[in-house]
């Protein structure tokens, strides 16, 4: 298919996103940008979050990894289900009870201002690195398949795509993204189903026949019972649960959409529906991966990993399927970047700049606050541009491995902070919290480097996230003391009062820890 025609289709798709953005962002204000005026429909949010959760990395990396890991990703998926249940019935009730706009304000109320800022800072690092890695993967595929043949340099492709995202998220924020994510998820899943159907038809196989061939080729293996392996069954299940708790329940981007639903019950329905859809879709992605690995030898394709799916599409599939693939790929691209930039802007403005606190104290008017938000939004777009170029320089063969490795180091401190707040009633020395949350990843790096001395043949894998969280939890315990309800030298009640939450802040302060510890149990 002509690269110029594919280029035209992508811009037409972007035009549709702009039309949705225009319709949803009229009369938008900061409340619209941050939490969609608390008026989002739960079913719409759930369906749209599928695209955000999966992204272009899942679309390309999960099928590509089947040749190496078989269907082993189902072990992690089982852990995801457990994690989503914890998010729905432990974390969401807490966020709704405290009426949060930024979930890291919980850390501020419970542990102190520096704890809240530390949580927000690690989220910003985590989401920035993860989202730009995902963005790079899809931009690189578009570049190789279309833009290189048109003579467009990579940096220009990267710049134009980020400008597109900026245009339709600049005003509406979450209010717009809830609708554009729904559209994009539809495109991605339609492309997935079409590719599965075409490959089955091309090889003249039924679903049962294809599964039998995958089993014979060793592609359908699920369980790994080798305790020393990074893919060991229970290690993957536990890691999957904690990845979901940290990367969904303690992630502003994911929770920002959830808490835009009017009621807690609606948000919980959203999470349960999201879980069901994700299990089905991830199973379908793995099945697609098996089909690709059966088809590749027949077609003489030697590409592996992230390059397998694009190679088969661009070299061996008819023009109509190429078009469907690229629309689906672009549909997977935008949700992973637009929501991230919006959530990063929200967290930076609320948690680090203290925008809501200043507005509550009447030190900042709405117009000035919007001007601040616009500048921060532009700044994150520029940062994304730079980091995608860095990932282009690194050029890893499997970005899903890179992303999960980054998550282990950067979401671990969030897991430790929230876990300490939920499961204990202790009061921390707030000024020492930043040192503790930085020490956790550093200790993990040392442990991973010298793991052969500590564990012999055993190798750390995804459980590094949990180990990181435990290091931070232990550090917080060392810099804390038993606290009494509503009191603390540097912590809980004081943080609530400082934030302008007044009596409510003091009431929800250390006392909230007791309530939420009960929820966790």
Automatic annotation (TrEMBL):
The keyword Transport applies. InterPro entries: Na/Glc_symporter_sf, Na/solute_symporter, Sodium:Solute_Symporter_SSF. Keywords: Cell membrane, Ion transport, Membrane, Sodium, Sodium transport, Transmembrane, Transmembrane helix, Transport. This is Sodium:solute symporter. PROSITE patterns: NA_SOLUT_SYMP_3. The keyword Nucleus does not apply. GO terms for biological process: sodium ion transport. Belongs to the sodium:solute symporter (SSF) (TC 2.A.21) family. The chain crosses the membrane at residues 6-23, 44-66, 78-98, 119-146, 152-170, 182-200, 232-250, 271-296, 323-355, 376-394, 400-420, 432-450, 456-479. It comes from the Bacteria. PANTHER family: INTEGRAL MEMBRANE TRANSPORT PROTEIN, SODIUM-COUPLED MONOCARBOXYLATE TRANSPORTER. It holds the Pfam family SSF. Residues 484-521 are annotated as: Disordered. It is a multi-pass membrane protein. One of its GO terms (molecular function) is symporter activity. GO terms for cellular component: plasma membrane. Its main location: membrane. The lineage of its organism: Bacteria, Pseudomonadati, Pseudomonadota, Betaproteobacteria, Burkholderiales. Residues 495-521 have a biased composition (Low complexity).
């Amino acid at each position: 298919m002509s690269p110029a025609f594919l280029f035209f289709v992508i811009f037409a798709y972007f035009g549709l996103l702009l039309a949705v953005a225009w319709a949803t962002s009229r009369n938008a204000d900061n409340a619209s940008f941050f939490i969609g005026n608390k008026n989002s429909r739960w079913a719409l949010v759930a369906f749209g979050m599928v695209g955000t959760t999966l992204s272009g990395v899942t679309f390309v990396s999960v099928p590509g990894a089947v040749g190496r890991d078989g269907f082993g990703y189902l072990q992690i998926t089982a852990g995801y289900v457990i994690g989503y249940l914890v998010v729905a019935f432990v974390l969401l009730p807490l966020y709704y009870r405290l009426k949060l706009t930024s979930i890291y304000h919980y850390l501020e109320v419970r542990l102190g201002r520096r704890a809240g800022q530390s949580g927000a800072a690690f989220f910003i690092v985590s989401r920035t690195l993860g989202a730009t890695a995902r963005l790079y993967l899809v931009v690189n595929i578009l570049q190789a398949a279309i833009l290189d043949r048109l003579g467009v340099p990579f940096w220009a492709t990267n710049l134009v795509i980020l400008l597109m995202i900026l245009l339709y998220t600049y005003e509406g924020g979450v209010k717009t993204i809830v609708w554009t994510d729904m559209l994009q998820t539809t495109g991605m899943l339609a492309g997935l189903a079409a590719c599965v159907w075409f490959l089955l038809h091309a090889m003249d196989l039924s679903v049962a026949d294809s599964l039998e061939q995958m089993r014979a080729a060793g592609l359908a293996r699920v369980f790994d019972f080798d305790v020393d392996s990074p893919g060991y069954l229970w290690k993957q299940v536990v890691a999957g649960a904690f990845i979901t708790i940290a990367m969904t329940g303690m992630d502003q981007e994911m929770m920002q959409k959830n808490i835009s639903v009017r009621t807690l019950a609606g948000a919980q329905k959203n999470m349960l529906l999201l879980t069901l859809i994700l299990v089905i879709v991830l199973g379908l992605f793995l099945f697609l991966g098996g089909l690709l690995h059966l088809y590749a030898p027949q077609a003489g394709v030697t590409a592996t990993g992230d390059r397998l799916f694009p190679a088969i599409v661009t070299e061996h599939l008819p023009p109509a399927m190429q078009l469907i693939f690229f629309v689906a790929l672009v549909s997977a691209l935008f949700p992973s970047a637009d929501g991230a930039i919006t959530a990063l802007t929200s967290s930076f403005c609320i948690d680090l700049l203290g925008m809501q606190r200043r507005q509550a104290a009447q030190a900042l008017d709405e117009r000035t606050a919007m001007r601040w938000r616009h500048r921060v939004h532009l700044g994150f777009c520029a940062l994304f541009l730079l980091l995608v170029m860095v990932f282009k320089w690194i050029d890893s063969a499997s970005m899903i491995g890179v992303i999960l490795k980054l998550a282990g180091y950067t979401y671990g401190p969030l897991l430790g902070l929230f876990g300490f707040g939920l499961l204990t009633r202790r009061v921390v020395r707030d000024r020492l919290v930043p040192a503790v949350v930085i020490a956790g990843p550093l200790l993990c790096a040392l442990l991973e480097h010298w793991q052969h001395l500590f564990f012999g043949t055993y190798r750390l894998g995804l459980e590094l996230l949990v180990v990181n969280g435990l290091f931070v939890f232990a550090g917080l315990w060392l810099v804390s003391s038993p606290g009494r309800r509503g009191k603390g030298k540097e912590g809980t009640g004081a943080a609530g009062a400082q934030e302008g939450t007044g009596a409510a802040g003091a009431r929800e302060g250390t006392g909230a820890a007791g309530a939420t510890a009960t929820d966790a149990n």
